[in-house]
Structures are given as structure tokens and as C-alpha cells.
Amino acid sequence: MADTDCNLFDCGHRACGGCGAALAAKLVTQAAGTETIVVASTGCMEVFSTPYPETAWKVPWIHSLFENASAVASGIEAALKKQGRKEKVIIMAGDGATFDIGMICISGAFERGHDFTYICYDNEAYMNTGIQRSGATPYDASTTTSPSGKCSFGNKRPKKDMPQILAAHGAPYVATASIAYTADLMQKVQKAINTQGPCYIQVHAPCCTGWGFEGDQTLAIAKLAIETGLWVNYEMVDGRVVKVKKVVRKPVEEYLKTQKRFRHLFKPSRQDAEIAAIQAIADTNAEKYGIDIKLKKE
Amino acid sequence: MMQMIEGSHAVAGAVKFCRPQVIAAYPITPQTHIVEALADYVANCELDAEYITVENEFSALSACIGASAAGSRTYSATTSQGLALMFEVCFNVAGMRFPIVMSIANRALGAPLSIWNDQQDSISLRDSGWLQFYAEDNQEAADLHYIAYRVAEDSSVLLPAFVCFDGFILSHTYEPIDTLTQEDVDKYLPKFAPKERLDAADPISFGMYATPDYYHEFRYEMDRALKESQAVIHAAGKEFGRMFGRDYSAMVEGYRLEDADTAIVAMGSICGTTKDAIDELRDEGKKVGLLKVRVFRPFPTDDIAKALADVKRVAVLDKNISLGAKGALALEVKDALYSSGIPVKDYIIGLGGRDVRKKDIKAVVELAEKGQGDIFYGLRREVL
User: ipTM score here?
Assistant: First the structure.
């Protein structure tokens, strides 16, 4: 049958049903359009989209190594400039490639001010290698290298604040986004690619396999992250927060109980102190970014 | 035009004439003078290139990948620790078939830290799929860059190339150099026009992963291209000779080898010292010759077997050591001579910048004549 419904990223990739990262790739390429070159890091998305000799990408795409996507993008951008070409350069890398192993390359490329957009699809652990913790893994999440156990509640550290780190490099546009808010994500991609200089967008992309939920719950869970204040959608221009997604906040428990990675906080017994600590993270986010909508009393 | 210039500047001048569009560079001794000179060319509009001042060598070569994939001729230079930091990227460049040329001002690898010359750095990347050229002097170091680009970018090769020249011994030494002109080089080296590049008008995917159904063949094709590149090197070297009078068509070069009983095999600047020592030994009546290996990858096995077919013994000078085995050059020369039965002895010499003088070469010849070898030459007594 003729393929009449192809996007710039979709046909025949091998992601799990309900993969948040695959949806992110689809939305990003749709927003960016055909005049784009995508640079990938090693990771789930690279593997599920390009098993030789097949590819799910209908824009020019290159993968070199795990940690060097922003250096490769630097070279592409320099070559395009020298050749007088106008394509936009977009990096798509996971949180491990971004928060951890690629950090030096990212810092160098952002400091040099190359004109590209770096999109981190953040599924909060090394999913390609089997769910190991990264610098993006949230507090108390159980992963295969930060497992919960008799004397552990899982990952001991909160998420690294990458957007602030890159804003501190002088990035002209830094944003967070979520696959649950598709129009917002696409608008941010368009803003970033049309802003001169290195821009960063961190996209919350739940992973059904790694987090432990059914594939039909991906969008609902992504939305709950926003509604509980554990993920905040905002935009920073020249280092200043200019726009924030406001919500009527729900307790974090509503988010935590949907995922097996937090199951140890409820079974075999409820861990009130740990849940309170996570609630405190959401409360701090809410205060820092002013996300709470105050309801008028009837 | 003859000019008295430093080796690094001879190399930088040659690179300029090759018109790289993107240079990604990071300073490291003894390579730094090359990238400083190139930065000067760019700052003075003598070279129209994007010059990316990367944060380390790993990113230097990674940026070259991006630029090469986008269809630009690219260049970097490094040595020693910097090359070691590029290890992962080197294999990647070759696997993705990007014809990047990189100068290596050969230097020892730590620990212990040493900024001085041997060839352990580039030799340690012999299995990575890069062509490896070794220069005896600064004229050759400069000229080999033209050859390297022409061969690397040939559509039947499409593999990256190291142009290796000994750190300090060559990089910081002033010699008279016949510098070509831009017009000369433009006639010799065509514009880089890869058939495939990152291009929105014709989107393709680079750097996909290969399952066991495909990987094996990717490696075979690289090996085949590298081996067959000998014919391309030969043609490019011959053409260079025809145009500019210096013929680099041979992978190996003999010096007073015709009637030699003892053949020394070596690479790099040590060949110059060896030639002087041989002249003196010949005056004493000793039949000694040199086989200089200019191209280490692809390894010219057949040329070496042919060139050494009539000698009685072979002494290989290795400025590297595959620890726990032997020097890399000796191992491969032994392979080339396996069926001949000619004895091959290995001499690990001049590591970490230890000076190698004519008298050392003569001492090696004496040892070889006695059948003694497979040793570290000239060790301090306290370690014996």
C-alpha cells in the first residue's frame, strides 16, 4: 500500500509502542521542516531508528559517537557557513549523552557560540543499555544501577539542572518542554532554530519500558509530571525566565504511583518521609518558577 | 621557491595550499606551531577557512567528522596524548570513510610524561583504518600532505590519513624547503567533491549501526580499500614527481641496498642519520644499506619482501614497542620475510626522545652481524 502518511520521522522505526522519545523525534522534525540536518548521539533513538540498511529519517541525519554530537554539529555548522548553505543544524541526544558523557563537548560548543539547536530527549536514565541511572534520573527512582533495596530508596540525588548550566554559557534561548504539550513543544523548536546561536530544549519523554507503565499511558504520565510540579515547562531568553506553564498542582503521589520505578515508595509499606521529600522538590520548583495557579474561593 | 623555515611552518604552508575549508585544532607540544601558523593565515585572510578552537582533541576530530560529512575538506593536527584522546574518534572516522588528513608530530605516550619524540602514538593506531605516511625530513613532511589529501579523497579509497613527522627532531628544525605555489597545488589537488554529503536536497543517513549480518563486510571493505590504496599512492606519488621533481611513488625506498649484506629498516627522521652512518660504514668496506618505509599503512608487504630478497640479515629500528611483544615495524617486516628465511632482528631505539647518533646505528649493525638483537638498544646500566 502506498505510504501516504509519512512524516520526516516515523515510518518503520523500532521503538516500543508508547515511546516518548519517538514522539519527540516526530514532533521536532515536523516543527523544524525539511531544511534541517539532524545530529544524533548513540542511544535508544539512534538504535531504534537506523538499523543498517534502513532509516526512519527523511532529513539528513548523522550519528558518530555517544559523547560527541555537539562537536560534530560544530563542524557541520562551520562547513555550512563556509559553503554558504542555510540548513538548520539540530542535535537530538538522550539525557545520558547530554547530562553525563557529552558534557565537555556541549560546554565547548555552547561557549563557542555555534548556531545550532540542541534537543535533549530526557527519559531520565540510560534506557538503551537497560535502565541505568544518569545525571537526569530523579530522586528516589529505582534503576538497575540505583536499585531500591532493603537499605536503598533508589537514586540518591536530584536531577542535574542542565537548562541553567547552558543558560550560564550564554545560550540565547533555553527551554523545557514535554511531549504531552505538542503545540508548545513545536513552537519552542521553531523559536530555537530561528534564534542565532546555540539553543537548548530539554524535552520530557517518558519511557514505558524504563519507568514501568503501559504504553498507552505515556502522554497521561507526561502530563502528570507537569501537573504535580515535578517537571516545569518554561522558556529562558538570554538567561531570564520569560514564560512558565502554570498549573493547579496535584500531589506528587499521583505521579509517583503510576510508575514501577517508584513502586518501592508504596509497597510493601508506604514511605511517607520519602514521598514528602519528593513533594518538597515539587514545592521548590513551584516557588522557583511560580507555576501555581491560585484558585479564587467561591 | 627555496625557503629556510621550521618544519611545522613547512607543514602549515602545505596545508594552506590544500585549501581546507574547516580546521579544528587544539594546542599540544610539539604540534602547536602548525595550528598557530594556520590561525595566523586565517587571521590575515591568507586562508579562507573556518577555524574551530575546540576544547580538546576529541572534539577536534569530532568536528572534522561533521565538516567532512557536510562536504568540506578538513584538517587537524595532534600528537601523543592528544591522539590517544582521539582513539575512539579515529576508528569512527575511518569506519565512516571520511578522508580527513591529520598531521602527527610524533611524540612518546605517558606515563611517564614525555614531550619528546618516538612513534608510539601513531603506531598505536595502526589498526584504526587510517593511512600512515612517515616523513624523513621536512621537505617530505610538507609534500606528503598533498599526496595524503589526493589519495584519501580518491573515490576508491575514502579513508583518512596521518602524515607523521618526528616531534622536535623535524617539527622544530629549520631546513631549506622547496615551497610550492597555490597555482601548483591547485593543478595537483582537485577540489573536494564527495558523492555523498549531508544535504537537505538529498537526505541520507550517516553512521547507522550494523547488525552481525552486515558489520563483517564493512570491515572487509575498509581493509580492501586500504590495501588497494597502494596503487593510488603510487600514481599520486608519480604524478607529484612528474610535476614537481620529487617522486613519492614508492611505499619503500632503498639506500645503497643493491649489494648489501645487512639491511636496516626504519621510518622517519632516523633514516637521515642512518644514511650518513651507512656512508661511513661503506667507506670502511661494510656492505650495509637502508630500506626506508614511507608508508606504514597500508603495509607494503610485497615491496618489502622484494626489496630485501637478496640481503643476508635485516635489522629493524623501532621507535615504538608493542609491550610484551616486539616493535611494530619488526613484527610486520618478519611477516613480509617469513618464507624467505632471512633473519630479522629488532632494535627498540630512541624512545621518549633519546638521541640516536651515527655511532648507535653502527653499533646496531655490529650487533646484527653477530646475530644479536630483539633488544632495547642502549639501556642505562642500572636497569640491567
Answer: 0.97
